Amino acid sequence: MTWLKDIIGTEKAIIAMCHFLPLPGDPYYDKEKGMEYVIEMARKDLLALQEGGVDAVLFSNEFSLPYLTDVKTETVAAMARIIGELMSDIKVPFGVNVLWDAKKSLDLAAATGAKFVREIFSGVYASDFGLWNTNVGETIRHQHRIGAGNVKLIYNIVPEAASYLADRSIESIAKSTVFNNRPDALCVSGLTAGSITDSQILKLVKNTVPDTVVLANTGVRLENLEEQLSITDGAVVGTTFKYEGKFENHVDINRVKAFMDKVKSFRKPLITV
């Protein structure tokens, strides 16, 4: 049994993305509609995801494009307000992700009571956002300084729009990340949000670190969910749940229900054995 059962309530868990619209300070923030509109749309998506039957929700500033690796205070403040306003509506376990800043993600988790955080905690990358360095030792010390020691850490080891500066195999990255950092889970992604994660890469990672939770981070769809969940311990799902399966759209409850019905059917034999 993994921590997913204790924290989220099931194995083969589906963590649904609740994407926030651009926030104050972001280039595409709608100043006319303001924060009230951002909150309204976040609530609409959250309720659709929950009614559709997802196991957990991950709040992120997905539309804060282009992303920062040293996020500004106004972004974290805005996200904390949104989650605070939604608190009475949140009925499932939730996590947070302040893209792409591990410390700020932990700050937000501590402030809101989030159960888990997904981030780029370790490694050095060449990315669309420039040279991307991390300091995992300092980040984990920061986690404990702010009283967030119980927050589960999901390490994205194949970040979107970035690649390791060193020429390393995915097996090497997975093995050393687990040995050195003891992550609660590893996330494996495709190139961008919504891009299918290669099943062969997922198999390599899971076979290399069989005792660590491994999640498919992008591109899990109705037609491939059984294959991906047969390899992994669960998935983070965003674009699939949107109208027409498009990243920029809002959540379509019918797509969520169809997906989760198939997931629950897939899980039944696992539960009864």
Automatic annotation (TrEMBL):
Lineage per the UniProt record: Bacteria, Bacillati, Bacillota, Bacilli, Bacillales
InterPro entries with a match to the protein in the record: BtpA, RibuloseP-bd_barrel
SUPFAM superfamilies xrefs: Ribulose-phoshate binding barrel
What family does the entry list?
A: Belongs to the BtpA family.
The record ties this protein, via Pfam families, to: BtpA (PF03437)
PANTHER family (UniProt xref): SGC REGION PROTEIN SGCQ-RELATED, ZGC:162297
Record-given protein name: BtpA/SgcQ family protein
